[in-house]
């Protein structure tokens, strides 16, 4: 049997909806749907869906099938991370500096041909931003080169 997968989505159960919404919007995530007490689509809690290509990211402050205490938990490990492809890390790093978003891991050059940087959302979800490697970009970004060889 093979499964015909049409897309992929991630649902993040957030502790502070307003803070998470502002975080993802400031990074440029495109909102395509909203629901909640003050929205056209009514629900007892707030939620937003962002979409990029065939991927959807949903954040919500509640869910009918999830116990409320789950929304108060923060992630304390990097067991799961979102991998986000970008053409360049430079705009992200500039934005993070201006928006006071700390880098969890600064720019690194990996031997498989990428430049990567890591930030965490307000609930501790790891976001890995990945750009194609270029020597000139690595130099401009002061990328850590210790990961560039195996």
Automatic annotation (TrEMBL):
InterPro entries: Glyas_Bleomycin-R_OHBP_Dase (IPR029068), Glyas_Fos-R_dOase_dom (IPR004360), VOC_core (IPR037523)
Protein name stated in the entry: VOC domain-containing protein
Top-rank lineage group of the source organism: Bacteria
Residue ranges constituting the VOC domain according to the UniProt record: 4-132
PROSITE patterns attached to this UniProt entry: VOC (PS51819)
SUPFAM superfamilies registered for this protein in UniProt: Glyoxalase/Bleomycin resistance protein/Dihydroxybiphenyl dioxygenase (SSF54593)
Pfam families named among the record's database cross-references: Glyoxalase
